[in-house]
From TrEMBL:
SUPFAM superfamilies xref list: Tryptophan synthase beta subunit-like PLP-dependent enzymes
InterPro entries: Cys_Synth/Cystath_Beta-Synth, TrpB-like_PALP, TrpB-like_PALP_sf
Residue span(s) of domain Tryptophan synthase beta chain-like PALP: 3-249
Superkingdom: Archaea
PANTHER family from the UniProt entry: CYSTATHIONINE BETA-SYNTHASE
Organism: Thermococcus peptonophilus
Protein name from the UniProt record: Cysteine synthase
């Protein structure tokens, strides 16, 4: 038996990142970090930027998004619709160098860099809220998770969820990353040293190619009628690879939907003809 957690029902970015960004911004406001500057700078490859732009508008805060080179055009357009200032960088991935670059840019002009990659408010959002919500939903049908499969990005959601369930159940947690040399929006290889991953007790890591991620998304679309994003497709592909090793109830975390990645799907479909 398996279930998918559909995080694209969150309202701002239609992704799981709404949870982290809301916690990041609200805690920063409570501490008074944003009240003086009213400007936020953030390195983002997509959903965090869209969510931060939306929530910044609600609180009257200016937002500048720093994007790596491979960011989908749809993400850029959505950020501009939301009124964000967009800075396209030459970084191929968001690594330590890019994170430090954005931090320095913020310091130069007195802006705030909430830094989703190192800010514990990211981890807390998923440990306190996302994981508890999954637990409550499962308990409502008399179930508990035997295995959870999730992508590794900042590692906030996989680590927060893993810590919560490993404190309460005998749950195995599987992380999904891009294969070497591959790029899948929203997930990253472990060489980027995601802050919370290595202390979360992840049981296994599965590498997935971009083609496998696309095919995972298409598989769900054609079988279930649900349009899921590429990191979600990567989770599906990883699950198909390991499902015979694990029995019981499996939970797949689907971070977002397909609509930001239409260009990627279009290219794949053209090549496949």
């Amino acid at each position: 038996m398996y279930f998918a957690k559909l995080e694209f029902f969150n309202p701002f970015s239609r992704s799981i990142k709404d949870r982290a960004v809301f916690n990041l911004v609200m805690n920063a406001l409570k501490r008074g970090d944003i009240n003086g500057t009213r400007r936020l700078f953030e390195a983002t490859s997509g959903n965090v930027g869209i969510s931060m732009a939306a929530i910044s508008n609600i609180f009257g805060v200016e937002f500048r998004a720093y994007l790596p080179k491979p960011t989908p055009k749809a993400t850029v357009s959505l950020l501009k619709v939301l009124g964000a200032e967009v800075v396209k960088t030459d970084f191929e991935v968001i690594d330590r160098e890019m994170i430090e670059f954005v931090r320095d840019e913020a310091e130069k002009v007195g802006a705030v860099n909430l830094n989703q990659f190192e800010n514990d408010d990211n981890f807390e959002a998923h440990h306190r809220y996302t994981a508890r919500e999954i637990d409550e939903q499962l308990r409502s049908i008399g179930a508990s998770p035997d295995v959870i499969i999730a992508g590794v990005g900042t590692s906030g959601h996989i680590a927060g969820i893993a810590k919560y369930f490993k404190e309460r159940y005998d749950t195995k947690v599987i992380g999904v990353i891009p294969a070497k040399g591959e790029k899948i929006p929203g997930i990253k290889r472990l060489e980027t040293k995601p802050k919370w991953f290595f202390d979360a007790g992840i049981d296994e890591v599965v590498e997935v190619t971009q083609r496998e991620a696309i095919e995972g998304s298409i598989q769900v679309a054609r079988r279930e009628g649900i349009l899921i994003g590429l990191s979600s497709g990567a989770v599906v592909s990883a699950f198909e690879r390991v499902r015979d090793k694990y029995s019981g109830t499996a939970i797949l975390i689907f971070p977002d939907d397909a609509f930001k990645y239409v260009e990627v799907f279009e290219k794949y479909l053209c090549e496949d003809q």
